[in-house]
Queue: 2 jobs
Job 1
Amino acid sequence: MAPNDEIEVNGRNDLLVPLLQPPENVAIDIPEPVKNMDKKTRIVKFKVGNINCAACATSIESAVGKLNGVESIAVLVLQGQAVIKYIPELIGAEKIKQTMEDAGFPVDGLPEPDIAVCWLRIKGMACTSCSESVEHALQMADGVKKAVVGLALEEAKVHFDPNLTDVNRIIEAVEDAGFGTELIGSGNEVNKAHLKVEGIEDMTIIQRSLESAIGVDHVEIDLANHKVTVTYDPDLTGPRSLIQRIQEAGSGSNSFHASLYIPLGRRETERHHEIDMYRNQFYLSCLFTVPVFMFSMVLPMLPPFGKWLEHKIYKMFTVGLLLRWIFCTPVQFIIGRRFYLGSYQALRRKSANMDVLVALGTNAAYFYSVFIAIKAMTSDAFEGQDFFETSAMLISFILLGKYLEIVARGKTSDALTKLTKLAPDTAYLLTLDGDGNVISETEISTQLIQRKDIIKIVPGAIIPVDGIVTSGQSYVNESMITGESSPIEKKSGDKVIGGTVNENGCILVKATHVGSETALSQIVQLVEAAQLAKAPVQKLADQISKFFVPIVVFAAFMTWLGWFITGVVGIYPKHLIPKDMDEFELALQFGISVLVVACPCALGLATPTAVMVGTGKGASEGVLIKGGNALEKAHKVKTVVFDKTGTLTVGKPVVVSVMLFSTVSMEQFCEMASAVEVNSEHPIARAVVDYAKGLCQKLESLNEYVKEAKDFEVHPGAGVSGKVGDIIVSVGNKRFMQACNVSIGPEVEDYISEHEQLAQTCVLVGVDGDVAGAFAVTDPVKPEAGRVISFLRSMGISSIMVTGDNWATASAIAKEVGIENVIAETDPLGKADKIRSLQMKGMIVAMVGDGINDSPALAAADVGMAIGAGTDIAIESADIVLIKSNLEDVVTAIDLSRKISFRIRLNYIWALGYNILGVPIAAGILYPFTGIRLPPWLAGACMAASSLSVVCSSLLLQSYKKPLHVQDSKTV
């Protein structure tokens, strides 16, 4: 084992594969499909400790495999995980966990898959109060463990216990709260195909045919719509095979036709529908509002029309009053019906929202106008001013504001939309014979690609799925995913990422991850989850909204009462009352204006819109931010802790020299070192193995197959050991040799000291208690490392390097990149302890790493940043993933979080600024001194402008530029 501090699961450069996918070289035994469909299976994944070797895995598999109800188990040694397929009716996850612990392997809690997840589209939310009501209704539902509702996304993510409730009951809970909802997807949607069947009346034929197919777990039939939903095992079948199965079920003239059916209701479709709805409602409202406006404010000033409008139909009831009443009524009760429904549902929930404010304001204006009209019909001398135009114009302006807001909000997900469009629509599927010869070539939809399919990628074509090159050679442009500007050479055995472009040669690719399993899809899902998660600062808006509406209603009532009483008593002069108004009417207009202008819509959009735009922009720049908490803390970071290998360095060490310190021949030395190191996935271990193989091949003495070491043991951050034949071999650093009681002579000490001064790591090989020889390994520093450290310093952020390597090597690397504070020769837990000690001093600490050994530190840090080419566990532990494996993105992540946080605060200023300034003006505080007042329709326009300004403010984040790139362009 190499003496460094990293233990990598793999050394892959295709950074997105370890980010989002399980390793392909792990074979999980999948049994035949369950014949009894009533006994549904479930797959869970446990994090298991103390797994050091294949023998440990065998022990776990033996203990758990004997349990009644366990169908299969696979233990992933390097990941420290156990994947179990079991029947919930026969055994529970708790029993499986207990069995593993009884076998001597600690298990970290119950697995997350025991909790199901679903995503819902929520309709009818107008402000933060609405999202709070939905969230409360979901959390109160039986079986719901956690619910998060996003106002800007209009979505809810619900975690629930499938044994206590289901999706239908969750939907009912939302609808009972007064909101429309529909299912977007659930946690098991990954391996579920939706098919539409034509040409058949008896669907039981299809059901029986599909249930008997290999790999099919469950079949659901929708008789009314001739649709079939199939849950399947992607390793055994896929949508194309299922369609073929259905078509083969028909015979003779009775042929069946099946096609892939994509359920409607996805975000883009819903957004276009909502935009169309508000636009049409606004146009319809204008159709009636414009005449009301003309009859009340324009035509009366034109003598011929004015006299005609003042013509009395009956007593004091005029033509103009009748026309205004007629044209205003449809706006109030038909077009404005949504405000009544929203108000009713809110009041039924014992809460208040924007709809309540709008309904109160427009009803006050409308029904007071009706009172004026009735009084005019019953009086010979009464003269009063109606407010029909106030009601109609107010509703029209609110609809216009909502339309513009939704259009603008749709642009907040532009970055994600661009990502999803990277994948092509079609691909060329090849059928091969047993000898690998091409039998046929068919162009199919990329949605029909299945695992293990062979896809032909011609020059200039976009690769549709993640896979492995089986034939051919080419260069692939991965810049749209990884940010790597130079095309990457791909040959047989190399991995490719869906959405990247094949530059020149023709290659054949075997699909390994398709559909929502691809790296591209997983990136989108990760960013969507981050956008749905609430930032802590959002809690402020949620708290304000709970009390805001009642306070506004009270303020509006007091405004009306204050102006009315002071007017009647005569505290203010009568000339302040406009012509054709009295004290009551003037007070009513002030009260309505306060109701409308204080609506808290913009407050609820301040945080989520900024987070949506910022995280989407970050994803397009190669920085995946996993949620609001990461954003909240990242902009406060004052200390960044860097791992060394694979983070500050390239992570591809090479052996630069070898020295023997015993009578062992070079051939034997290389053979023994390779036999032990070949079992390790550490990058330095691979460098030693590659060097030993190359050297012995030159000497023509190494067998084709390296000897196998027995009793292999891994000692994290120190080394590895094993038995080669009858010889005990230890490979690692100086500290590990001392722990193994291997004597180190002066000659070895001099060799170590000499090479450590050159920033080279010494890998010592101990044979039967003595150092037989050593390898000097170097890992080049990343070219951008020094620039990043310097830029962080200019941002007021200090940098620390923590590594398991020796002090001399660590100091040399630190000096090269400009880091002054170094902590070396520490184990994984030591890294985490160091971070905690920094936090105890009041520092907000970010950790940047890539290996399994970094996962405790990444989890302990306030903000964990994982290099994208690192391991699954490191990335799972991180809050931010730098998918380009470029250290410049550490600066980008912190700078972007600062920009987003600044934008959120600015949005709150916009949102609250309208209220702080608008409410006093609407209440008439300036009117006695300047004659300026805010009519209700203008107050409605201000309310709409506040929401629009917040969204547009957030959209400015789309122009974000990386700070290091800007700096570089200035210096060129």
Job 2
Amino acid sequence: MAHLFRDLSLGHSKRETTPPPPPPTMPPKSATVADDLPSPLGQLAANFSDSELALTAYEIFVAACRTSAGKPLSFVPNSSSNHTDSPSHNSPNSPAFQRSLTSTAASKVKKAFGLKSPGSGSKKSPGSGSGSGSGQGKPKRPMTVGELMRNQMRVSEAMDSRVRRALLRISAGQVGRRIESVVVPLELLQQLKASDFTDQQEYGEWQKRTLKVLEAGLILHPHMPLDKSNSAAQRLRQVIHAALDKPIETGRNNESMQVLRSAVMSLASRSYDGSLTDSCHWADGIPLNLRLYEMLLQSCFDANDESSVIEEFDELMEQIKKTWGILGLNEMFHNLCFTWVLFHRFVATGQMDLDLLSAADGQLAEVAKDAKTTKDPEYSKILSSTLTSILGWAEKRLLAYHETFDRGNVETMEGIVSLGVAAAKILVEDISNEYRRRRRTEVNVARERIETYIRSSLRTTFAQIMEKADSSRRASKNQPNSLPLLAILAKDVGSLAVNEKQVFSPILKRWHPLPAGLAVATLHACYGNELKQFISGITELTPDAVQVLRAADQLEKDLVQIAVEDSVDSEDGGKAIIREMPPYEAEGAIANLVKIWIKTRLDRLKEWVDRNLQQELWNSQANQEGYAPSAVEVLRIINETLDAFFQLPIPMHPALLPEVMNGLDRCLQYYVAKSKSGCGSRNTFVPIMPALTRCTIGSKFQGFGKKKDKSPNSQKRNPQVATNGDSSFGVPQLCVRINTLQWILGEFDVLEKRIITLLRNSESAHEEDFSNGLAKKFELSPAACLEGIQQLCEAVAYRIVFHDLSHVLWDGLYVGDPSSSRIEPFLQELEQKLMFISDTVHERIRTRIIAETMRASFDGFLLVLLAGGPSRAFSRKDSQIIEDDFKYLKDLFWANGDGLPSEIIDKFSTTLRSILPLFRTDTESLIEQFRRLTLETFKSSARSRLPLPPTSGQWNPSEPNTLLRVLCYRNDESASKFLKKTYDLPKKL
């Protein structure tokens, strides 16, 4: 307990004389304050005013403080003299009741409970004024305890004199009787006459009050239960009711007085076992005795400073305790009543004086000791009522402590929490039967109460700040950059959490190990419920949604940090608290919204590709650079998408960038695929391989093993090949497509560098985000471009050779007499095509497409020689013509060193160069070579008859089918005989 008052020195009290007492009817000031805090000591059935109770308590006090030796009770009238004027006042023969108060040391009880005296330093709740102390020039103080008590209880000097005189008379007439055996009101009625009062009305009121006291103590609140048919009680009621109309005569021989005395003594002398007792029970019934004792205890407070106890507290309390015999009280009831009086005085004086609160808390510790030992049901009932009242008042403030306390008065909160927790512990641990049936280790009352206060107050405060945030949002709704509700709320909740940690948690730490953690877990749950509803209603990424989610994410980090810091020294490291805080997944919600945003953008881009490529003309005139406008537009949209992505106010650009890149990569891949779709490939334009035939010049074609003739024209070209009328797939359009893919391929480096720049400028990027280069690169579309360029180059080359120039190659070269259908027409038209390609195609593709055209020309030349159909036949002497034409073909691409490199020409012509010697080889050697290779290839199956080797299309001088085709197109008798004999082919068709 705090010792916040100064010690009093030996000598005179600082209070000099008694101030003039107020009228007798005025009750003690604090008794009428705090109407919202009814007394738990019980309500009286009789209608007593506070002044009537105070006078009755004073009468009991004076009676109880008479000398225990049975000497006549001395009465010292009020005197303005100093205590040193009359030595007899301090003589050994004078009662303790009369001893000088200034000769004692400072109060030990006051020190024990931290109570202050008037004018001493006091611990006030912040904002309170200092207690009014004794001022200069005040009258001198009373000289005796009796005078002090009269002043404190505001009893007039006249009434005090009457009571003292009457008690002296009673004492003189009943020498040797203990005061407990005297019914004081009855004896006062007997002793005091109307002549003792200056006013007849005053005497009548005094008599009525005295009779009401007898009724209350003997009938309404008796010490022992009273049978309704008790005759003494009935007689007493009749006398009392009669006195309401007319005061009774109180003479000793008066009949009414005799009836009254008989009834009173009969009721007061009752005992539980029926035996006679010398103690009279007239003021020891609950709650009358407690209310009277409460009045006596209130007299310990200074009349000029209601929150201060008088300097003579110990002396006065010593005398007050002498009333226990009359009131039927003991130390336990005293501790309980005094706790209530201290607490009530703290409330009644505006809750400003922390000394009172601390004293009540200290006194409650004594009550806790008593509660553990007593089995008195009456005491337990009053104890429960008192503690319930204290706890109810405390919890009314603690369940919403944010409304009641702040930085300025947080010390008051600590005292109220201590008081409330102590009351709760006694109620649960010492009164609750349920608690006694359970193991006490299972219940931590203090911790549970603090947890309840924290959760309740923070939930209440959260609802209030949410309402405040909503009002703030509505007020700023039409202002630019106004924040959404949950973003404002997140900021306010964060501030509330910090304030909780700094202001309240240090106080509550005394009773709960993790008050800050519990607080932020409660706030986390409250905000989480609102956030969950918000997230469930989000369908797209909006600035408001991002603001809220980012604010929620930051709030969660702040709350978790507070919880972690508060849990450093806890047994589980705060795991239990953290488990109460399931993640908001705000970043996940943002990520999901961004993914929806990305998908929407990509779907629109794909739709745009479909729509615009259907309209694209692939016209080289549409763009001076020779590529399609749609490609420029696609990359523009991609750049806009990247800009928009990095402008999103989100904290995870690096994490979501791979998804954006993958989506854009697929869109570009889709564009490339659509760009080359329908353009054909190498196999699209190569003619269908004619059936193996035995041909002579001018002969009719007949398929081997076929009985019906087939038109040679039916085998000229693949029916899938696009016609010249399809303007979308002509060579010029194919070249634009090639240029377009090449231009896109060249833009990837620019795009990727720009992405790195955007990433570096984003707020959430870290250095490690740049280490993984794969996340910022296009992977699918560059490969698709390369593949598309290769496919289109082949398509252009084979289209030129087998489609555009088929009339001079497939339909004209070596038809009839080889010497009259040479390669010159084909070379002339091919050269024009190559000139167009050279002028149209991007320079980086030019060599490749010309090389592909060369390869297609070589393939076409070889196909004419080996599968040219029945209109072609060659003699050995034609081999020179063939070789010369092949040389002219190569020279066209070499272009005197300005064309393709010789090594590329040699590489692509390897197969053709290896087969041409077969055309000048003699027939017998060809037949022998064919027979040997066929037997080696087919082994045992070829012993009886040479099988017909299948056509593989992979021409090779050591491949049987290649040799067989040379023989089929050999205009030679030996070849005809061999083919007729081996495969039953006629010499002439």
